[in-house]
Batch of 3 targets.
Target 1
Amino acid sequence: MNAIEGEFPALVARLAEGLVAREALLVTAESCTGGWIAKVCTDRAGSSAWFDRGVVTYSNAAKHELLGVPEALIAQHGAVSRPVVEAMATGALTRSAARYSVAVSGIAGPSGGTPDKPVGTVWLAWGTPVGVSAVCAHFSGDREQVRAATVAAALRGLLERL
């Protein structure tokens, strides 16, 4: 376990506390993390009190079929983009009982990067009762480090929005 992964239990504890206090549920919509955000959330005993579900939509077809991301949006902007990740966060909320969502789509590597979207590029979006917001992050390291940094950023972003 690296230093970032060591932070996960404390971040999830704070997240659980905040969601329980608001009587709110969380849904995750994950691509590049492959369910890792949902995993660290459900590692915590009692997570069923605040975690509704997680959806892994690794393929573009899954993003469309499970989250309702328009195919045209993916074709126009690519899966790793603000419009797509915002649509993922919104789709996760509309297809669940949750009031908070987090969605991630990125290029974890080692291949798949382009000059415009190099390896380590990740879009993250959070859905809340007041709307959806998104940021683009650029993480360094190998595939595992990029994915771990994405999980940490997703959890921190949720905490900031509670």
Note: The first strand starts at residue 26 and ends at 30.
Target 2
Amino acid sequence: MTAPTKYYVFYDGDCGFCNYWVQWIIEKDRDDRFLFSALQSDFGQQFLRERGLQSNQFNTLYLWKPHAFYLVKSKAVLEIAKILGGTYGLLAQLNIFPRFFSDKIYDKIAANRLKLSSQKCFVPNEAQRKKMIS
């Protein structure tokens, strides 16, 4: 069996700030490497249950490569940047902060993400909808 080539990004589907970043990743994903699923969706809930993770907390971003790994919080963000490559990949490589520190920053942003979000709703076009898994 060959390993899947897609990376799955799990995010808070009810958060405008999170949806903004999903849209941003989609726009930068020139090599079509990412698929997306809200943590509240059936697929997202299955992902959480299979790993024994809390299924009612949606303040954590997860990046999953099936049959390989999953990353959380700041490590997921940095890996997404690395996968996107270019300037974003370079920034990810320059990360000099230890995980406990970068996760602390991530947690601070996550705690305030609803305040940070605009009221604009992300409405994916047809091509973008194909990247969404429910």
Note: The beta strands are 7-11, 34-38, 62-65, 69-72.
Target 3
Amino acid sequence: MTTAISPNVPEHAKLGPLASRLVKVNDLAWQPTRFAGIDAKPLLVDRASGLVTSLIRMAPGAVLPDHQHVLIEQTWVLEGHLVDKAGPDEGIECLPGEFIWRPAGSRHVAWSPKGGTMLAMFQIPNKFFESDGRVTDQAGDDWQAIWGTAQESRAG
């Protein structure tokens, strides 16, 4: 049985364990993230496995700070663009209709000088490196405490 949920879709609670989960994305409200100018619509979250799929909206000039992709990350740009601001692929730009994926262990800073909307799929959420040395998840919580079990279960 799945442990995945679609946050903010309460009608899923009454569905059987094998029923399909339709998410009316246009009905979901954008949720601000802790990163200025970046909002998200979480579509699927599975804490047990770490699997996360979200619609991401970046305002012009928004920056996703220094982070590492724990496992493969996939991004499909729907509108606008996504640019590597820092890291080994600095300057690479993904445009509307293009798809980019990042290998496990890759690390960079991403931004959208003109803004953009993208579908992002994670096998396990990113690790963010804070200036005080902490390693957090996208919500600012201790990464290991929230996602470490999912990573360990994939390794074992």
Note: The chain has a mean pLDDT of 93.
